[in-house]
Sequence to fold (165 residues):
Amino acid sequence: MDLSVENAQLFDIGNINNTWVSPIMVSIRWQLDDVGNTGWLRGNTEWVFTGYFTPVLEGVENRFSGALFGPRYNFVQPGSKLVPYLDTRVGFGFTDSQNVRGAQGQDFYFTFTVGVGARYLISDQWDIALGVIYQHISNAGLSEPGQPNNGLDTIGPHMALQFQF
Fold:
């Protein structure tokens, strides 16, 4: 099990508002299995629970906040301090977008992320991670027809400091 503090700088792709957000996340990762498989697929799976607060540095909303959860697969090679990973998380959140032109259309939304990166093992208990995250935010049309569903797609660099119990 480990605890991490994470930050990302995410920039919109294809949105009319030129949004820039900086999520601050706290995640707990629970190791689901031992290292298995062979070759480059050798690794293990973790289940990730994340709480986040995201200030909007540029865009129409002021903040996003919520929770995410999902699996991460670590590609663990014998004797290597570098551990590449893939993860995906789904969740929900809240924002301040009601009656704001070009915003999400309502304050409740759904979200998912896809991430890729690598952890560097500093010691038996500490590691740092660098990667890239893609995030999609949308109210899934729940605000329509009264307000448009202006989904948000962002991508950018991600970093984390992790402590293993």
Summary: The chain has a mean pLDDT of 93. The beta strands are 2-8, 10-12, 20-21, 24-31, 43-58, 63-75, 82-95, 108-121, 126-138, 152-164. The longest strand covers residues 43-58.
